[in-house]
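Chapter review. Work through the record for GNAT family N-acetyltransferase before attempting the end-of-chapter questions.
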Amino acid sequence: MVIIETPRLILRQLELEDDSFVFELVNTPSWLKFIGDRGVHTLNDARNYIRTGPMDSYSRFGFGLLLIFLKGEDIPIGMCGLLNRDVLDDPDMGFALLPVYEGKGYAFEAASAVLKYSRNELQLKRIVAIVMRENQRSVSLLQRLGFVYEKDVILPYSNEELLLFGCKLLN
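Structure tokens for GNAT family N-acetyltransferase:
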């Protein structure tokens, strides 16, 4: 199901058939370094990740991570969307691209569209993003999107200090 369309991209809900792409993306060096190992070591693990992560989120919250495609091509290039974390007060924006598609403006285009969708369709007042301090590309992208650094946080399931950015969508 297509959720968002931009000049160059299509964002749609993830399906179990996206298992090979998810397997590839979550095992890239940048994902493992900046997001972490999600235990996706087989295609079955990838299907379980899709089922218990994005698909569960769609049904429970009405949003989740979306698969990013180049418009006019049947090639997935990344994921972008919102996550609901019990430990955060607001939905959390996440994004990741396969390395070959980084640096081409796709993450900014997808994330901008997710922000607009979050405000106009989901009527969210605010979203946040968490990022590792050393992930300067993501920090820069968040700042370009209008996110503002608020504080350092440590999530309960990690001992890693993360930067929390917030973005007000509605008054």
